[in-house]
Amino acid sequence: MFDTLKLKIFGRRKIPGTRIDADAEKTAKPSHFYLNSYYSEEIVCRDCGTLFIHTAKDKRSFFEEEKGNIYRRFVRCRACDEIKHPERYPT
Ligand SMILES: [Zn+2]
Known about the structure:
- By secondary structure, the chain is an alpha+beta fold.
- The protein contains three helices and five strands.
- It has one domain.
- Zinc ion binds next to helix 3.
């Protein structure tokens, strides 16, 4: 019940039990901020309202393998994100 409310208010909810450790050595390197863990999250797409799951593994690969912007928070589903930010998806 509380979790559902949180999902409605914040548009996202951590899925318990999905934590994996981050390797700060592998992420892009801002000086004063680092990630120490990833959780899978349920996210309500800001644009189309679809509920999708962004998995901890996907986050790790985005931040550690693709060296994605460490401050980026995922707020849109893939389809809407492609429309909003086509530069992120070079063909
Ligand atoms: Zn969407």
